[in-house]
Amino acid sequence: MRIGLLTEGGYPYVSGDAGLWCDRLVRGLEQHEFDIYALSRSERQEDEGWVRLPPQVSRVRTAPLWMAEDDGVVLGRRARRRFAECFGELAAAVCAAPAVLDGSEAAGGADAAGGVEADRFGSALYGLAELARDEGGLVGALRSEGAVRALERACRAPGALRAARTARVPDLLSVAAHIERALRPLSLDWYEADGLGSVDLCHAAAGGEAALPGLLALHFAGVPLLVTEYGVQLRAHYLASSTVEESPAVRALLAAFHGALAAEVYRRAALITPGNTHARRWQERCGADRAKLRTVYPGMEAARFAEVGERTDGSGCADPDTLVWVGRVEPAKDLISLLHSFAEIRKEAPKTRLRIVGAPADGPEGALYLAHCKALAAQLFPDEAEGLHAVGDNPVSFEETGGPEVPSLAEAYASGAVVVLSSVVEGFPISLVEAMFCGRATVSTDVGAVVEVIGGTGLVVPPRNPRALAEACVALLRDPERRARLGAAARARALELFTVEQNIAAFHGIYLEIVSRSPVRRFVVDDAGDPLPFGVPAEAHVLGRWTEARLMATGRPRWAAGAPVRATAPLPAGEGA
Fold first, then answer.
1. Nearest to residue 510, comparing CAs of 171, 349, 192, 270?
2. Nearest to 70 by CA among 170, 179, 144
3. Taking the model in full, what pTM does it have?
4. 274-319 confidence digits (pLDDT tens)
């Protein structure tokens, strides 16, 4: 089977989202052939290069989403009229569609996703895609004054979003620029018969812009689309927009645009694979059909935690009086509440220590938050000494993996008796699963997919509640037998649900299910130009290449040119690649 793997800001680049998961998937499904279609997010990401690719990756095509040079395409009068109609319809659909989670105008967002406005948005989107194919690109048109004026007319039209009607010229320019960036994949040359039109299945590693090439491959060539979201793109947009100073009109319009794009992706996808029930609920709320959803947990490498997790003689715990927190230091992890909770813990268990292991998040915000946490720790816990002549020591330490005291993540988890997670926002809690692989008892806040991951093998408390967090930690510190039982149960659960092997097996079955239900309709012609009966054998969708027939997609759009491809003689048995 030939898979077109679609990524945005990740694989095959060294840095970015979902890179490790994609690499494990490609390496684990070595019986399939992969073509990688990647959108990069920054010049820095491109300069860092790619990871080492396995031999089953036959081709990599990339395009920068962070910049787009003017393609030099000048639309004629008829093409300008087509663009005005299509972009005007898209803008009208965005302005009329209620943002799924946007306050009072959110009601009915999920219902509207499958209704008239969703059809209107989709029709306009594919109209723009066909125009881009006919004319060679739409970069200049999407940046034109005509696009801004079309957006302004949609905002002023009756029935538009209340916030959109207040949009001023700077707001319209900002929204138009954002939409132009999101629609850059429309101008790519990835959708020819030798590109995405030649694969058996498109697998988007995220929603939003990453899935847009898959929508176009489905529209032009009938290639089925699988969408995997371990972090829901629409949710990520809402969280990001809450930290940016933008006008209500810009927030409302961008929320509506991303909501409409998400609804179209969910509507056209053959199957959708959320990474947990928390993501699944988001997808259903944003219009995904429940019948299309298949939960597939992220696969994590258990082997590197095996040595710690399999210790049964009690040596797996370096210090029974130590709490461990592991993760990326940022405000969403709420280390402030953790430090205040630790102050309560010290009142009940004065010998307890807290190890915070992790680097600050990228950017100045992460470093500033780490400095704030260190200052609070110094204030709450002045250096203590056992005697008059001993050196004082702070019970809270801030460390990073790779040093002499914490050479690896496994050693970090092994250094304490209880692993703590104090987040106020969380998707799939990776650090929690790692602690479970290590056989650690855990105390976590009830956010994201925490309860689903823990499944009764750890203690869960409300977020932003230092006292509840402290009581749960003290309960486990005082009961080593309970810690051991919970840790053993947690490791067994993690090995059953969250390994790389189960993830790969799940996607292998999903690939076969989609291709068997929605095969790409192609035909082969003989030397006379007539359809060749049985030119594509049933084995074409299983391991190996059984013929060397050149295939051509049916229902070619009007921009396709060239004569039908001729069939060649099949190879003798056993000579397929």
1. 270
2. 144
3. 0.82
4. 999 888 988 998 889 999 999 999 999 999 999 888 875 444 566 8
